[in-house]
DNA sequence: GACATAATTCCGGTATAGTGGAATAATAAT
DNA sequence: ATTATTATTCCACTATACCGGAATTATGTC
């Protein structure tokens, strides 16, 4: 990929993680043959790797006959990550409070490789429920958080991180890159960003950064509100998020 | 390991997972050199693997200068596991209820490879707090749950799973294997087990199995109570756990 | 500063992991 | 049953990942 030297074989470890990511993406048990097809990888290789991953508990037999899914060991490793950074504890209580005061859905979002994802969510008690599935990987530019998470990067870094096709919105429209970059700069300076969702037509998204001591944006706290609510309570929500942003950034490692 | 054919090189993927497990065990960022030493693995190999794992987001730079720890991608994979099996949701509400009614610490425990571990915990509001760290890997025979989790296995399977040294208790005493196996059979038949902790001197542990449809024990719900409490409320706690055990086993996949 | 020690990168050889393809087993369709 | 289709295992070849050891760089000590 990176160097000019053309490889003829993939590294097992790369393929192994591809398998895990694929299962995470499709969210359902798959048989080795399906995985091989989906990844465009040699079947014999996938069979071998699946067995290795099963041995390690990174995958588990799912439906008794062939299909596998993510394994318990991944859960425990994830727990260890969570405990170490202690994100959940601190962030979740802040989110609870915001949702209590606003009745809106609150989210904590992070980068996951070159995609955006919702890591934590507290659902508001609105009559209709607003929420993308947590854990889904979404193109960064589609989201309000996508203006904050990359705040620390140069234009070049940003453009080399985001796959070009991710600038095409779900409707097929193309996002203006220069404008996107400008939004990032502005959001970074303001420590806040909000806009009408470009993924749906009825919500407004508020986002504020959570920064580590070095100032890098490790995640965002967001409020996802129906548009009319957002108009009515704009300043309140904005203030709540900025306050949460600052208090959480204090406690980050 | 399994076949007689002696290998001279380890597979990268095996070493990679060893690295992840090691970091989980020590719970703190490590530098590649430390990891290599701790694992008894070639340094150059570990450096290479650590870089690969960093590229994949399975590890993250921790302290700015060299040390790495478990990465975000593991957290997300763990989330996906959790969501799919939906354990947390169902189990946690049951645990909440038990702790509310008993004021004791409730745990949900699982096998993790050849060790026992606490996957979920709701702490009771006793004046002194009872809890081993969640996520720690503990020898199976040291625990009450260790009588239930292996209920579906034959003697041979059990003995080949558990490393011999795990029958040595923390104090140095040796656990009688025949007696341990007998306890497993009895616990399995009763759907319940309890005993005074052998890890500390002041608690009594209650455990009941959570079984999947096939009858295999996927985890245990446990109450960890001070000994005098345990005596006073023995029948109540026992009944609560058995009820929870049965209701949860209904809902398992 | 010089020196000692430890951490990290570099590099070439070889054991072997990843692969294509064939053989076999399982499953579905007829 | 027979056939067609698909899934899985087996096997041998070679590109390369793993590894030992040397070279380099960083870190600490005096």
UniProtKB/TrEMBL annotation, chains A, B:
InterPro entries: GAF-like_dom_sf, HTH_MetabolicPath_Reg, Tscrpt_reg_IclR_C, Tscrpt_reg_IclR_N, WH-like_DNA-bd_sf, WH_DNA-bd_sf. Pfam families: HTH_IclR, IclR_C. Residues 73-253 form the IclR-ED domain. Coiled coil: none annotated. Keywords: DNA-binding, Transcription, Transcription regulation. PANTHER family: HELIX-TURN-HELIX TRANSCRIPTIONAL REGULATOR, ICLR FAMILY, HTH-TYPE TRANSCRIPTIONAL REGULATOR RV1719. This is IclR family transcriptional regulator. It comes from Sinisalibacter lacisalsi.
């Amino acid at each position: 990929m990176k160097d000019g030297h053309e490889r003829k074989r993939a590294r097992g470890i790369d393929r192994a993680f591809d398998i895990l990511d694929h299962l995470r993406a499709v969210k359902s048990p798959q048989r080795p043959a399906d995985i091989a097809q989906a990844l465009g990888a040699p079947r014999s290789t996938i069979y071998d790797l699946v067995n290795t991953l099963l041995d390690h508990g990174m995958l588990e037999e799912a439906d008794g006959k062939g299909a596998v899914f993510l394994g318990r060991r991944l859960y425990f490793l994830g727990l260890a990550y969570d405990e170490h950074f202690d994100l959940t504890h601190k962030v979740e209580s802040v989110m609870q409070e915001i949702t209590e005061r606003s009745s809106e859905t609150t989210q904590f979002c992070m980068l996951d490789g070159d995609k955006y994802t919702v890591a934590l969510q507290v659902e508001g008690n609105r009559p209709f429920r607003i929420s993308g599935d947590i854990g889904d990987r979404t193109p960064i530019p589609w989201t309000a958080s996508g203006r904050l998470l990359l705040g620390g990067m140069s234009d070049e870094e940003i453009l080399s991180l985001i796959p070009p096709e991710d600038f095409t919105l779900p409707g097929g429209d193309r996002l203006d890159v220069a404008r996107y970059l400008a939004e990032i700069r502005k959001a970074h300076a303001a420590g806040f960003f909000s806009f009408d969702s470009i993924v749906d037509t009825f919500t407004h998204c508020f986002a504020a950064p959570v920064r580590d001591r070095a100032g890098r944006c490790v995640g965002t706290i967001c409020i996802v509100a129906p548009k009319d609510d957002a108009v009515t309570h704009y300043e309140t929500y904005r203030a709540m998020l900025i306050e949460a942003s600052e208090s959480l950034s204090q406690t980050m490692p």
